[in-house]
Every structure is written in C-alpha cells, then in structure tokens.
Amino acid sequence: RYASNTVSNPMLPMTALMMNQEPLNSNILNNAYPQEQKQMLGEKLYQIIQAAQPELAGKITGMILEMENSEILHMLEDSSSLNSKVNEAVAVLQAHLQKLADQQKIAK
User: Buried b vs exposed e over 61-84: b needs ≥16 C-beta within 10 Å?
Assistant: First the structure.
C-alpha cells in the first residue's frame, strides 16, 4: 500500500540518474564557500529525488540538507544510502500529514 505521492520502487530512477550525472566530490566542495556548498549539494540532490518523489522533492531535499556535507556526499555516491534516507523522509512526512489529519478530526 502506497500513498498517491509515493513511488513503489524509487530506487530505479534514482540509480539511473545518479549514474548519468557528473560526480560532486569533496575537492569541488572545498573550493566553494559554505553557502555555495549547500546550494551545489541541494541542486544535485533535488535532481535525483525529483525523479522518484516529484511532489515531495523540495521538502525531502531540505530535510537532507540539514545533514553534514560529508554525509550528503556519501549518499550521492551510494544510491542505496540515498534511497534509504528518501524513504525515511517520506515516512516522516506521511506520519506528519496523518497527525495533522487526526488533529483536524478531533477539532471538529
């Protein structure tokens, strides 16, 4: 059972996209200012996540960008790690939406 905004197998588009992209590595990041680093990571992440979770890509990207740059780089290199984190973020967002729905029922 998947919600309407959940892809049943998000690994496929993520893996394909990650293989077709120019890698972002620590040397490239180290030559950029901290704000530019997050921007570069966010752009790369968003491209990949958007293929699997188009409606939630912005929120998921923002959640992942709260992590350390080294962890994000690792996920960009390891599709299974990124897939796991995306699935975790989707679960958190769905739980939050369910909580809001439950609160609205109680308020009525």
Answer: bebbeeeebeebbebbeebeebbe
